[in-house]
Write a structure and sequence with these properties.
The chain is an alpha+beta fold. Helix content is about 35%, strand content about 25%. The longest helix is centred in the middle third of the chain and has 33 residues, at about 135-165.
């Protein structure tokens, strides 16, 4: 299972630049992340807990001189494994990274207790290391980028398929089914209909329609029936005219 670094860990501990959203953070090339991924790949593999951190459950990961702390976020929609802290073992030291992590966590607890009315009863405070809202926003941005890229490919494949045989072609995507029907009139008007079956997030319909090549953004109109049948209750459909040149380029595979 791939392990993601928090944004703080990526920048401050691993000293790596933030990659574009098209690159998932669990694909960042670093030996410590690779080792952490190996440890979490098999659910039966035992993990060594960092015992000096008692407010949250963190596990050790080691490779070469690199040391790290990993965290399993069970509160997410699906469990995600995070690298929340990292450092390098100095020459001659045994496990100074984890000793330093404990020292920092105790200092953080003292600061927390000084600022809050209800003091912590734990020896350490390390929740500030856990993934926060910026990490969740990055995760959603990557998911949106992957979906947009998949939509680009899916829409073009469906248009090509429908241009070849004049029938609707469809594909299953996360949470919904997307169908496209394209009918060309001997180089004149090219009719295109987009069918969406299922529940889609707010705004996704517009994103899908914008992916259909050769169609004016303001040319989409809702349809209440497809050329060959009526719509089902869980379906929505939109139609437009496609530029014949764009259709020809797709058919020839020149997009």
């Amino acid at each position: 299972m791939a392990v993601r670094p928090t944004l703080r860990c990526l920048r401050e501990d691993l000293h790596l630049p933030l990659p574009p959203a098209s690159t998932s953070l669990d694909q960042v090339d670093h030996p410590l992340l690779a080792k952490a991924g190996e440890q979490f790949a098999d659910p039966d593999t035992p993990h060594e807990r960092i015992r000096s951190i008692d407010d949250v459950v963190l596990f050790k990961v080691k490779i070469g001189r690199w040391r790290g702390a990993t965290y399993v976020d069970q509160a997410a929609d699906e469990a995600r494994d995070w690298l929340v802290a990292a450092g390098r073992r100095e020459d001659g030291a045994v496990d100074d990274f984890y000793a330093a992590l404990h020292t920092q966590a105790r200092a953080a607890r003292q600061r927390y207790n000084a600022e809050q009315d209800k003091p912590l009863t734990t020896d350490a405070y390390s929740r500030h290391l856990l993934p926060g809202q910026d990490d969740q926003d990055r995760y959603l941005l990557e998911a949106g980028t992957r979906l947009a890229k998949r939509l680009d490919t899916a829409v073009r494949d469906l248009v090509r398929g429908s241009l070849r045989d004049g029938h609707e072609h469809a594909v299953d995507l996360p949470g919904f089914r997307l169908g496209l029907l394209v009918r060309a009139d001997h180089g004149h008007e090219t009719y295109v209909a987009v069918r969406i079956t299922g529940s889609v997030p707010t705004g996704l319909t517009a994103v899908i329609l914008s992916r259909v090549p050769g169609c004016a953004a303001d040319g989409w109109f809702p349809e209440y029936a497809l050329p060959e049948r009526h719509l089902l209750p869980a379906e929505q459909a939109w139609s437009n005219l496609m530029d014949p040149k764009a259709a020809a380029q797709l058919f020839d595979g020149q997009d």
